[in-house]
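Action item from last week, closing it out:
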Amino acid sequence: MDIEKNKKKKGFLGEERAVSYLLSQGFKILERNLKERYGEVDILALKDETFHFVEVKSGFVLEKNKEYLLSEKIDVQKIKRIERVALSYLERVGQEDSFWCIDLIEVYFSTNGRFLKIKMMENVTL
């Protein structure tokens, strides 16, 4: 199956890379595809007593030496939805006074599906 043409597979592979990266950086993965009534967050992780609500974006480097930023696909509405999911989750588990943030992980593949790089932006705000 061609990863470039299969959005679901690209997303799954991107999330797998993101989980591996987070684990290598000392994060504990609490949940994947966390669903609350306001929406979904790709990964919920914990590090240094801070909850990290992580959005993962996967994409391709379209031209050699030129790439687009996957973070450009995140808008104010998406951040607000993630905030509502985070607050809902923290309230549900009795952790509403805990530290938390929204992070973005960009996972880049070549057009033939080979993993190229990963980039993490912590505490994203718009």
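Closing note: The two ends are 36 Å apart (CA to CA).
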